[in-house]
Amino acid sequence: MAVTIKKIAELCGVSRGTVDRVLNNRGKVKPETEALIRRVAEQLDYKPNIAGKALAARKKSFVIGVIVASEGNPFFDDVLKGIHQAENELHDYGVKIIIKTMKGYDIQRQLKLIEELEGGIHALILNSISDAEIAAKIDELTDKGIPVITLNTDIENSKRLCYVGCDYVKGGETACGMLGLLTGGRAKVGVITGSVKILGHNQRVQGFRNVIKRRYPGIEVVDFAESNDDDIIAFEATKKMLLEHKEIDALFIAAAGAYGVCRAVISLGLENKITIVCFDDVPSTVEMMEKGLIKATICQQPFLQGNKSVHIAYDYLVSGARPHNDQFIVENKIKILENLYQTP
Amino acid sequence: MAVTIKKIAELCGVSRGTVDRVLNNRGKVKPETEALIRRVAEQLDYKPNIAGKALAARKKSFVIGVIVASEGNPFFDDVLKGIHQAENELHDYGVKIIIKTMKGYDIQRQLKLIEELEGGIHALILNSISDAEIAAKIDELTDKGIPVITLNTDIENSKRLCYVGCDYVKGGETACGMLGLLTGGRAKVGVITGSVKILGHNQRVQGFRNVIKRRYPGIEVVDFAESNDDDIIAFEATKKMLLEHKEIDALFIAAAGAYGVCRAVISLGLENKITIVCFDDVPSTVEMMEKGLIKATICQQPFLQGNKSVHIAYDYLVSGARPHNDQFIVENKIKILENLYQTP
DNA sequence: TTGTATGCGTTATCAA
DNA sequence: TTGATAACGCATACAA
């Protein structure tokens, strides 16, 4: 039979209340008794029963705040779906969610949204901007007892509880691996990134270059442009790039803007010449895959990211549990036309 | 606040016990009261609280039997790991698991194993052979109140509770999609399947042909052989095939035996000529991917299959919950060298 | 500093 | 046929 608080209490000759105080660090226990209880719990490998915790937790109520830069970015549609489903799943357990959305990555705007939420939440899920001011704010919340979970974008040197998102470097490596296979290892590549200011985008490009160096000497990056995650800018930049570099026969799109890129390729009549690899499966990308323009896309489980971030926040609030290594890394999944539609 | 049995009881002016009897079909309730309770529960959209159920269920104990054809088949290593982890996760809830393994697909042997278990289990997870005698046995168990979950291989026309595994047709389609991309849509393919008697293998080949017809007229299947999931037989068959058909420049391996196939290719010095696509990422396949022989493999989340099958059995025993559409379909994941190692 | 009592939602037992 | 009550493991308000 499993070890329970009751059993530990009996074994130590104290009451359940005392064991609870020790195991949950509530203080007010004589040091000797505390030591004894800890020793016994350790030896018996006590694991709190989740169902019991959840049931007892129903009496409380948890408000979780969410801030995402989802406006005008369809990638976040599935992230938000995952969050909403988690809210549903945890509704029974007294979880309420307040979502604030923003457009693009404006530091002051994000700070303002955090301040709007901060008084009324028990935890914050933050699609964070990698910036010192934001990091300081995260530390402030954490010190106040509001854990912060970074979602999709991480931030270094902060007291965030954990990061939920993909491994961007590995994503870039996977993209290059696919391009290598699709082109027989010979390609002149144009890179269209989102912004050199965004860590994740740079990491993808870095991963891409890693694999060139490691396995594909025949792949060469001949030009590089930024789209600011905007289809129009991507369209213009791609057109310019392809006109200036007639030798380009592959495009690596490290961020949003794939639709603009594809339209540029079409407008120059280069559909059959250029191999395109990109990220995520937003509707416009799916459309371009069906047209045959985009051969492969690397996806990062947006639904799972949203869903998991909420569950992690709840688990931490209820039982102090935190994920292994302070992170939950989703997979980079290769999708081609044939395996696009599958159960999440 | 969520709807509970207590609330329904109050609203109907009866005791919790009575509501419980109605909602769990235990009988012994006056028809009028039953109708009233059902109506109220329906209207309030009553959803039983899982934590409550789990807690109450601790008093019972569940024995789940598992039969898998895992002997000599490393694919099942991860399936078994998933099962063991589920046992760990549910240990607190009184779940015990008895695993019986077999080698290959021998109907009489499988029947015998079922009979050995049948007296002492509350549910059965069965890596079933698609056969009428087995189907009849499944129905017998089901009628006795022992739900049967088919794992990795399904069986038609039976009263099994649900199927946990992949969509084999889609797996074959994905494999052909990859091969099309890797070869620029032009290939002379040799197909090495496991056995024409195994439904899943046939479905993969079917999916492969679907995509040839749909998108890749330049891909042609020139020969076909069986490996019986055995590396030695696969080795011999591949060698023969490649010697007879010098034009073959791609191999589609629909089942186990990939290692034998690769060794045949190596022994003929054709490493650089032949594009190989296969299934699953057993250690010998990973080795061949690292050597560059296998370009891509389609994986089917073995760990998740094992883990999920146990959880589904438990959920059904505790709360009568069954998965949507009587199945839990795992994904066909494309893996190349760069995204082979990731969190499960 | 410690113990006791109560409740979370569900199920089982026993008495009526 | 029904209702009352205890139990599962945990958390906590309150009493000692």
Automatic annotation (TrEMBL), chains A, B:
InterPro entries: HTH_LacI (IPR000843), Lambda_DNA-bd_dom_sf (IPR010982), Peripla_BP_I (IPR028082), SBP_2_dom (IPR025997). It comes from the Bacteria. Pfam families: LacI, Peripla_BP_4. Residues 3-57 form the HTH lacI-type domain. SUPFAM superfamilies: lambda repressor-like DNA-binding domains (SSF47413), Periplasmic binding protein-like I (SSF53822). Keywords: DNA-binding, Transcription, Transcription regulation. The keyword Membrane does not apply. One of its GO terms (molecular function) is transcription cis-regulatory region binding. This is LacI family transcriptional regulator.
